[in-house]
Every structure is written in structure tokens, then in C-alpha cells.
Design goal:
This protein has eight helices and 14 strands. It is of the alpha/beta class and about 230 residues long. The strands form four sheets. It has a five-stranded parallel beta sheet, sandwiched between helices. Strands 8-9-10-11 form a four-stranded antiparallel beta sheet, with helices on one face. Strands 12-14-13 form a three-stranded antiparallel beta sheet. The protein is globular. Helix 1 links the parallel strand 1 and strand 2.
Length: about 230
């Protein structure tokens, strides 16, 4: 795990923003800060990020809504922070695409440890993956870096988008139910809410079509999705 991984902290409380940034800096990370979504957007567009610590309630928007925009630009895992700490709030954050959730007030060392866990899991995945590449025509999946390439170009997939595509590709020709995809990748019961899966499939289809891929994701009404 690189001690100079770049972390973006998005927080409108100046004192908490400074405390979060200082803690991560002291742990050896390169830290960027943003008091609002506009500044966060600039950083995400300009700098490759390894993780994002994102407040949900911000002066110019909602962090949960912003996650979809993040996923179009970066595959960095997102740690959500908020004073809203009920079970439903946590589930909403995870279903919106967050990778972890910590309720305020939180211990700064715990926040730092959760970021470290993101990076450690990525490093362990790289070391333990038995097969690095899966290639189908012009599509290549790097299962160590969790990146997909189409015609040699990085598709810039979010972590869960990559996992959805990987699971479909690994089961090419088979129909996978939305419940199976969600519960396998999100590690949560779908509870009748397939919004996250539909969004992931929609974005994957757009990127596959834009790259003139030899394959496509088919929808079988009432049955699920199939990679053909």
C-alpha cells in the first residue's frame, strides 16, 4: 500500500475538514480538501484519487446525489460521513454507491483506519488474484487493478460497475437475476430496490456502445440480465 496515496476530503465544517486532513496527512497520505461539491468536482477532474471521504450534507448539494457524478470520473472508494446515523441512513448511503459509512461525531483514528482498509483491500486483491486478465474481443478486464479496457482505452468504471461487468462476463450467456447481482456485489438484501443495479447496467451499456464493443448486456424481462 502506497503511503503517498491521494485522499480527497469533502467537508463544509472548517474545523472538521482541517482535523480530517491533518490526521490523514500525519498518516502519510497526500490530502486534498474541498468545502463544497464545486471544489470537489475540480479535484476529481484534475487528480487521480485513491479514496474519497465525503460528507453527505453540503452547502451546494447532497453527497449521495454526487456519488453518481464521482463514478463517472473516478473509481476511488468513497467513505461517507454524516450526522445522520440511523440504519436507514446507512443503507441509503451504501445503496447510493458509497463503499463505507461513518456517523458523526467519529473518532479521527477510526476514520483514518477505514481509509487504510480501503487501500489495504486493494493491495491484497492485487496480490491474491489468480488470473489478471479476462479478454473477450475488444474488451479486456484487469481483475487485479479492477479496470476495464475497451479498444485499449480505460472505461473509467466505478468499483461496483466493474464488479457487475465482471460477474456478467464470467457468466457469459447465462441470465443473472438483479437480486443475485445486487446481493453478491453490494452484500445487502435488495429489498425490492433495484435502482442501483439499473443505474450500473445503464452506465455500462452506454460505455460499451460508445466503444463499439462486440458484446452487449441484454435485459430479459422478469428474468434478469445476460452478457452476449
Amino acid at each position: 500500500m502506497s503511503s503517498r496515496a491521494t485522499i480527497l476530503v469533502v467537508e463544509d465544517n472548517e474545523r472538521l475538514l482541517d482535523a480530517n486532513a491533518r490526521t490523514l496527512s500525519e498518516a502519510g497520505y497526500s490530502v486534498l480538501t474541498a468545502p463544497d461539491l464545486a471544489t470537489a468536482r475540480q479535484h476529481i477532474n484534475q487528480v487521480p484519487l485513491d479514496a474519497i471521504v465525503l460528507d453527505i450534507i453540503l452547502p451546494d448539494g447532497n453527497g449521495l446525489d454526487f456519488i453518481e457524478e464521482i463514478r463517472a470520473l473516478s473509481s476511488a472508494p468513497v467513505l461517507l460521513t454524516t450526522a445522520l446515523g440511523t440504519k436507514d441512513d446507512k443503507l441509503a448511503g451504501l445503496r447510493a454507491g458509497g463503499d463505507d459509512y461513518i456517523a458523526k461525531p467519529f473518532d479521527l483514528d477510526e476514520m483514518c483506519a477505514r481509509v487504510e482498509a480501503f487501500l489495504r483491500r486493494e493491495a491484497m486483491h492485487r496480490e491474491s488474484s489468480p488470473s489478471r486478465e479476462l479478454i473477450l474481443g475488444t474488451l479486456k478486464l484487469d481483475t487485479v487493478a479492477d479496470r476495464a479496457y475497451l479498444n485499449g482505452k480505460d472505461m473509467q468504471l466505478a468499483p461496483k460497475e466493474f464488479l457487475v461487468l465482471l460477474l456478467l462476463v464470467q457468466n457469459k450467456g447465462k441470465t443473472l437475476r438483479a437480486e443475485y447481482l445486487y446481493e453478491t456485489i453490494w452484500k445487502l438484501p435488495i429489498a425490492g430496490d433495484d435502482h442501483s443495479i439499473k443505474n450500473a447496467i445503464y452506465r455500462l451499456r452506454q460505455k460499451l456502445r460508445a466503444g463499439n464493443c462486440d458484446y452487449s448486456i441484454e435485459t430479459l424481462r422478469g428474468e434478469g440480465y445476460r452478457f452476449e
